[in-house]
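Format notes (please read before filing issues)

Several people have asked whether sequences and structure tokens are stored in separate files. They are not. Every record keeps both together, in the order shown below: the sequence lines, then the token lines. Line labels are part of the format and must not be stripped during preprocessing.
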Amino acid sequence: MVLLPHVIVTVNSDGTLTVTIDGESFAPEPYAPPWRRTTFGTLIDRISDHRRTPVRVEVRETDGSVFTDIITPAKQHPTQFDPVPQAPKPAAPPELVEVTADGFVPGEDVAVAIIITHTDAAHTGIARALLEATQLNASPTGEVVLLGRVSGTYEIVSRR
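Then the structure lines:
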């Protein structure tokens, strides 16, 4: 008997999705927004290992209706020939730019952050930023700095 992973997707009244696989909770990556209807394809890709593994998916709507389907991987078509490996292009040496500021305590650890976007704090004072995974993965430290330009409040959030 072959058992497929059983995925239950429950649609919440606020449009978010609660997901379990074989009874175990399946949450988004840390710092990622909650699953939503618009991320259903990404969700199924993650669960099915980019559609290499078939899964049984049950979607439970807010009105009580239930839809069930089996998502199967796409067939892989073998290539007729192996591509000719190409020599990697030599990487250009990095261009360095110096940034300086004063007023720090001698020997103090000073974080360097490049601002790539802005967000507003909610009425609760909580700030939330959505970043593409490639942006955060480009950071060797995995850290994000949230800095309030009016309050001076700052928070260093580490993904690792």
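For reference, the curators noted about this record: The first strand starts at residue 6 and ends at 11. The chain is about 10% helix and 20% strand.
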